[in-house]
Amino acid sequence: MSSRVLAADLPRHVGARVRVAGWVHRRRRLKSVTFVVVRDRSGLAQVVLQGAAPPEETVVEVQATVTANPRAPGGVELTSPVVRTLAEAVQPPPFPLYRPEVDASLPTILDHAPVALRHPALRARFALSAAAVRGFRSTLDRLGFTETHTPKIVASATESGANVFGIEYFGRRAYLAQSPQFFKQALVGVFERVYEVGPVFRAEPHDTARHLAQYTSLDAELGFIRDHRDVMAVLREVLAGMAAGLVTVPEEIPEIHFADALKLLGAPPDEPDLAPAHERRLSAWARREHGSEFLFVTGYPMAKRPFYTHPDPARPGYSNSFDLLFRGLELVTGGQRLHRHADYLAVLGDDAPAYRDYLAAFAHGMPPHGGFAIGLERWTARLLGAANVREATLFPRDLHRLTP
Amino acid sequence: MSSRVLAADLPRHVGARVRVAGWVHRRRRLKSVTFVVVRDRSGLAQVVLQGAAPPEETVVEVQATVTANPRAPGGVELTSPVVRTLAEAVQPPPFPLYRPEVDASLPTILDHAPVALRHPALRARFALSAAAVRGFRSTLDRLGFTETHTPKIVASATESGANVFGIEYFGRRAYLAQSPQFFKQALVGVFERVYEVGPVFRAEPHDTARHLAQYTSLDAELGFIRDHRDVMAVLREVLAGMAAGLVTVPEEIPEIHFADALKLLGAPPDEPDLAPAHERRLSAWARREHGSEFLFVTGYPMAKRPFYTHPDPARPGYSNSFDLLFRGLELVTGGQRLHRHADYLAVLGDDAPAYRDYLAAFAHGMPPHGGFAIGLERWTARLLGAANVREATLFPRDLHRLTP
């Protein structure tokens, strides 16, 4: 018997005897025959069986004849089958995997992820996520970026201080990295343009639909920029590569300065940040006025940005940074960073010694640079219209969830 | 002034006025002029300057005329330059970055990684590493694999028990994952074929040239295999994609059974494992007899393999697993796994309850499957002929090293 044929390829084998393999997705018993739908990574195949069929999720190999049948899914079905069980399903699934809709609550799905994710609609989310990462990388590869892998175990919690996980590290105290920020900046000094796809860790004590203890961060950083607009231009390219035809990324993503955004919203001019309701209203405005699902808000007040943020030379108090809003929510944060050693010493003041390793790169000459970070799960959830970021996470980790 | 031109592209601009930017790589003062070599991500450019030049590693922008000069590197040099400093280098590098050889010890390189890695020879290692990862992914994408991202924080240390890092996780105890093994197996049930590129963590108390506390694991797992040979065939494809012309991967990697290897070595037939000296001798044999730098050793005794290893149905006591030796060292471990729920219950016995989440996938039907894991740093070090795996790690983490 020749090699395995995938379900999606069966129409090219009409009349032939083939071998397919997969899971029993569904059984339907009629008077004289049983229709068994077999699921593999490519799709579904209908097998016409005499007599009883094994239960759902049994792993089977089927040798059979490919027969045209316009009423069968895909226009073919498998007849005269010989079915061999490769592995038994000793328990029924926690909810029916064959129904088009997912008939289970989010906790049920997450508790039973190893089997729940087999549902074609759940599985498809993560195929989308994989395509987004592929688009992120291929865009940046094309633009001359180098992929890097940096430590997830760090010596100090200096970047943000709070919300870090502590580790016992050979009798010392260490921490899980909250972002590759410091490393990717140092690596601009080596490669000019770098990216990393990897886990980041946040000991978020918040039990919300948006927070995870681990998520996948898509980080990029580039040198020899004029200002944050060069970073925004690269981000626009990256998003177009990640969208995979599911959403239109305009050639020019509209942009509004933070101060103008407050005016538009009728908010007090000294508001230091945007509230979620503000972000939703700004997104609606961008859709209405510019026909865009994306909006850059630039020039956030320095007071609310991290210490390495580059100020706007023309408007002290405001920064060369941006947030990208997508469908009413902040999706990406980025901007230009400080690059002169003296500027870092000035902003860090007495804290400078604690940042010794970080400052080393700047002591040896660093170009004007900037970057951004995209949360993969948040991006996928937003593309899918999912309310909870856990719906776009294979095995979420949060305040309450450490398994499966 | 038009946009920046990279050093490597200068020969296409002879006669034109251009803008380049980069680091002062080297200064050479002659009687009347100074030759300044500027380094950017593409290569080097020679600038002919009247008068003094800024110190090495200063970040500069140079506007100048591209002039043909057969004696200059690349056949061109930059004349009539206007040099602008973008950022000062306030300290000299820990060792000269412009010498072709790296004139520094490994500890010096690692202590000063943010600047040391700028040395073109050191930087090149990580371009090679990035190319290897790209080859790993593109091969598996072509073969229908799906990329996944799995938790690095896990609830129990069940896979190997020892050498795990403990984490304080919201008042509970958790651990850093030593491998994505259990997750990738479960995901074979979802996608059939999966891979992951990500950090793994080993609390190795060994201070050797081979051990890191964090390394980048290239993991793959595939379902619907006949046995471990289908896994070896995929691995062979992957290696060919990763080799990037630096080493020849034979169409058929030679293979020797563990029992035959012991005979060849004149070792007692009850040896449970291969010693490093054995691996070196077997590699030499493969090169001599088969002209191959790679050798599969198959059929390792079950006693020395993890509990999920599939036995060889024809030779009890031996397994359907393999190691891949490359230039005298073990580079990859892989094999077929158990896939029947009952087989797992049998090997785990009373420990089965501790593996509840892992066993869930098998209770719901799992196909015959197997996989492998490649340590990225080890692969790169071996390709480079580097004696220490730290030479292929940007910022190593080990027993003694937690910074930079």
Q: Could you state the CATH homologous superfamily of the largest domain in chain A?
A: Bira Bifunctional Protein, Domain 2
Radius of gyration of chain A (CA) equals 26 Å
Task: Tell me the β content of chain A.
Answer: 25-35%
- Reading off the top of the CATH hierarchy, the class of the largest domain in chain A is best stated as Alpha Beta
Unreliable residue stretches of chain A:
none
Strand order of the largest sheet of chain A: 6-10-11-16-15-14-13-12
**Cα distance spanning the termini of chain A:** 39 Å
Give the helix/strand layout.
The structure is a homodimer of 404-residue chains.
Chain A: E1 17-29, E2 33-40, E3 43-50, E4 59-68, E5 76-87, H1 106-111, H2 113-116, H3 120-142, E6 146-147, E7 153-154, E8 166-169, E9 172-176, H4 181-191, E10 193-201, E11 214-223, H5 228-243, E12 255-257, H6 258-265, H7 276-290, E13 294-298, E14 321-326, E15 329-337, H8 341-348, H9 356-363, E16 369-375, H10 376-384
Parallel strand pairs in A: 6-10, 12-13
Antiparallel strand pairs in A: 1-2, 1-4, 2-3, 4-5, 7-9, 8-9, 10-11, 11-16, 13-14, 14-15, 15-16
Helix pairs in contact in A: 3-5, 3-10, 4-9
